[in-house]
TrEMBL record:
Protein's name according to its UniProt entry: Choline dehydrogenase
PROSITE patterns: GMC_OXRED_2
Domain Glucose-methanol-choline oxidoreductase N-terminal: 253-267
Keyword Oxidoreductase: yes
PANTHER family assigned to the protein according to its UniProt record, in alphabetical order: CHOLINE DEHYDROGENASE, MITOCHONDRIAL (PTHR11552:SF147), GLUCOSE-METHANOL-CHOLINE GMC OXIDOREDUCTASE (PTHR11552)
Organism: Microscilla marina ATCC 23134
Length: 542
C-alpha cells in the first residue's frame, strides 16, 4: 500500500470531498483521503425522506453532550455523519448560505479575504442552481441545488400563515435578502440526495492519483520540527503511517477536528499534560468557542390526513414507495423541513436572528418520539447568532474515546430572551386562521405554556441541537484563534483545518453550504500557493 503522498485529507465529509476533488484535479498531486466511516451506498442515504432513519446507525457517530445543567441536566444527542459525505449524507439537504452580515463580521475580526463579496464567487463556483438564474447563483458547479418536486399542502399553509401575520414572502433566502418566509432550496438531484460525496467525490474516484480509505480511524497527526509530516491511522485492526510531503488537511468537523488536534499535542497545554499527552503546540483556543443552533419546537395535532405522518401508513406506504422508486417524486422525495423563514427579534439586530423550520409532520426528539398514530405539524425556531458558547475536550488520551462535548446551551440572558420571543412567534404562526381548518390543538409533553417562565422551562426540557456545531478551531488573529485567514494552524507548518470548526462565529442559517464554500476557497488558496512555489515566487511556509 502506498504511504507517501503530497496531501493527506482527514475526513471525507462535506469539506473533505470538495478538497479531494479539487486537489487531485492536478494529476501530479498524490492525494490520500482517510474517512473513519463506511461507504455511502445505503438506500436511506439516497432517499431524501429517509434521513431520520440514519440517526443512531452505523453511519452516525451518535455523540452526546456531557450533562447540560442549563437543559434540565440532560445528555443531549448529537448526530454526526460517519460515512462518505459526512453530514451531507445524513442531513435534511437544506441549502442556506447564511447572511451577508456573517461574512462581513468574519472579515472585521481580522480575516482578510472572507467578506461576503469575496466568498460569494466560491458559493457560485460550487453550485449548479437548477431554478434561479441571477448574479447570486452559479450554474455548472458540482453541487446540485433545486426545488423539491414534492411540497406538502401544510407547508404551503405555513407560508400563508406568515403572510397573515404581516411577514413578506421570500422566494430565495440566498439572494438579495434573507428576511421573510418561503420554501427551502435543497441539495438534491433527480429526486435523490446530492451529498458532497455524490457531487464531488464519486465522479473522480477513478483518478489514479486519488486514494480514498474508508473505516480508517485517525489516531494522530505526526509532527516533526514544528511541521505536520504525516498521519497515524487504524484500519481493519492494523496500524498504518502515511506521509505527506506538502500538507496534512484536517476536515473532521467541529467535534472531531479539535479532538484530533489535541490527540496530536496541539491545544491547551495544561489539559494535554493532565492526560499525559506531550505538548507540541500550546494553542488554548482549540476546542473552545463551540457554537450551535439549538432548536425549540411548537407542535400541533392536525386533522389533515395527508401530512407526512401518513407517508408510511398501511396501505399508503406501498403507493408512496412505488411512486418514489418509479418517478423519484412524491412524499419520499421530501426533505421534511420543507418551509421556513428568517425574522428579526428586535430592530437593533443587524440581520435576521431567528430562523424557522416547518415540518408537515410531528418531529419530536429528532423523530424518535413521534406518535404512532395521527397527524401533526411542527414549527421549530432557533436563535441564529447565539451568545452561549461551549467546549470540545478530550475525555481520554485514547483516540477511540468520544470527545467530551459541552454545548452550554441557553446559558446567557440574551439567548433566553430571544428563544422565548421566537417560541411565542412559532406558536402564533401555528394558531393563525390559515391553519384553523387543519388544527386540532396543541401537542406537547405537558400543558401548553402560558408565560415566559413556562416557555423557558419547556425549551430547556425539550430543546435539541439542529445539527450545526461550529467554531472550535476558529479563524482569526487573537490569542484564542487556532488558524489564520489561510486556515493554517498557528505554529505548525504544513497543517490546515478546513471545515465548520474554522468559523469565527456560526453562520445565520444551515451550515452545509458555508462548509462547501470554505472548502472551495481553501482548495483555491492551496493550489494557488502550490503554483507560486513551483514558479519560485515564494517559499512554502505552511
Amino acid at each position: 500500500m502506498q504511504n507517501n503522498f503530497d496531501y493527506i485529507i482527514i475526513g471525507a465529509g462535506s469539506a473533505g470531498c470538495v478538497l479531494a476533488n479539487r486537489l487531485s484535479a492536478n494529476p501530479k498531486n498524490q492525494v490520500l483521503v482517510l474517512e473513519a466511516g463506511r461507504k455511502d451506498n445505503l438506500q436511506n442515504v439516497k432517499i431524501p425522506a429517509g434521513f431520520p432513519k440514519l440517526f443512531k446507525t452505523e453511519v452516525d457517530y451518535g455523540y452526546t453532550t456531557v450533562n447540560q445543567p442549563t437543559m434540565h441536566n440532560r445528555e443531549m444527542y448529537l448526530p454526526r455523519g460517519k460515512v462518505l459525505g459526512g453530514c451531507s449524507s445524513i442531513n435534511a439537504m437544506i441549502y442556506i448560505r447564511g447572511s451577508r452580515q456573517d461574512y462581513n463580521e468574519w472579515s472585521t475580526l481580522g480575516n482578510l479575504g472572507w467578506s461576503y463579496e469575496e466568498v460569494l464567487p466560491y458559493f457560485k463556483k460550487s453550485e449548479n442552481q437548477e431554478i434561479i438564474q441571477n448574479d447570486f447563483h452559479g450554474k455548472g458547479g458540482p453541487l446540485n441545488v433545486t426545488n423539491r418536486s414534492y411540497t406538502n399542502h401544510l407547508s404551503q399553509v405555513f407560508v400563508q400563515a406568515a403572510q397573515e401575520l404581516g411577514y413578506d414572502t421570500n422566494e430565495d433566502f440566498n439572494g438579495a435578502t434573507q428576511e421573510g418566509f418561503g420554501f427551502y432550496q435543497v441539495t438534491q438531484t433527480k429526486g435523490e440526495r446530492c451529498s458532497t460525496a455524490k457531487a464531488y467525490l464519486h465522479p473522480v474516484m477513478a483518478r489514479t492519483n486519488l486514494q480514498v480509505e474508508t473505516k480508517a480511524q485517525v489516531e494522530r497527526i505526526i509532527i516533526e520540527n514544528e511541521r505536520a509530516v504525516g498521519v497515524v491511522y487504524h484500519q481493519n485492526g492494523q496500524k498504518y503511517e502515511a506521509k505527506a510531503s506538502k500538507e496534512v488537511i484536517l476536515s473532521a468537523g467541529a467535534y472531531n477536528s479539535p479532538q484530533v488536534l489535541q490527540l496530536s499535542g496541539i491545544g491547551n497545554g495544561d489539559d494535554l499534560q493532565a492526560l499525559g499527552l506531550p505538548v507540541v503546540k500550546h494553542l488554548p483556543g482549540v476546542g473552545q468557542n463551540l457554537q450551535d443552533h439549538m432548536v425549540y419546537f411548537t407542535l400541533f395535532n392536525s386533522n389533515y390526513k395527508r401530512s407526512l405522518d401518513s407517508a408510511e401508513n398501511f396501505p399508503g406506504i406501498f403507493k408512496n414507495l412505488f411512486q418514489y422508486l418509479l418517478t423519484k417524486k412524491g412524499m419520499f422525495s421530501t426533505n421534511i423541513g420543507e418551509a421556513g423563514g428568517f425574522v428579526y427579534s428586535s430592530p437593533d439586530q443587524p440581520s435576521p436572528d431567528i430562523q424557522y423550520h416547518f415540518a408537515p409532520a410531528y418531529f419530536l426528539s429528532h423523530g424518535f418520539k413521534n406518535p404512532e398514530k395521527g397527524n401533526g405539524y411542527s414549527i421549530g425556531g432557533k436563535v441564529l447568532n447565539p451568545s452561549s458558547k461551549g467546549t470540545v475536550k478530550l475525555a481520554s488520551a485514547n483516540f477511540n474515546t468520544a470527545p467530551a462535548i459541552d454545548h452550554n446551551y441557553m446559558s446567557t440572558d440574551d439567548d433566553i430572551r430571544r428563544s422565548v420571543w421566537g417560541f411565542r412567534l412559532a406558536e402564533k404562526l401555528g394558531m393563525t386562521n390559515a391553519f384553523a381548518p387543519y388544527r386540532k390543538g396543541w401537542h406537547g409533553f405537558a400543558a401548553r405554556p402560558t408565560d415566559d417562565v413556562e416557555i423557558e422551562d419547556l425549551i430547556r426540557a425539550t430543546g435539541e441541537t439542529l445539527y450545526h456545531p461550529t467554531s472550535t478551531c476558529k479563524m482569526g488573529d487573537d490569542e484564542m484563534a487556532v488558524v489564520d485567514a489561510e486556515l493554517k494552524v498557528y505554529g505548525v507548518n504544513g497543517l490546515r483545518v478546513v471545515d465548520a470548526s474554522i468559523m469565527p462565529n456560526v453562520t445565520r442559517g444551515n451550515t452545509n453550504a458555508p462548509v462547501v464554500m470554505i472548502a472551495e476557497k481553501a482548495a483555491d488558496m492551496i493550489l494557488r500557493e502550490e503554483m507560486m512555489v513551483a514558479a519560485g515566487i515564494t517559499e512554502r511556509v505552511g
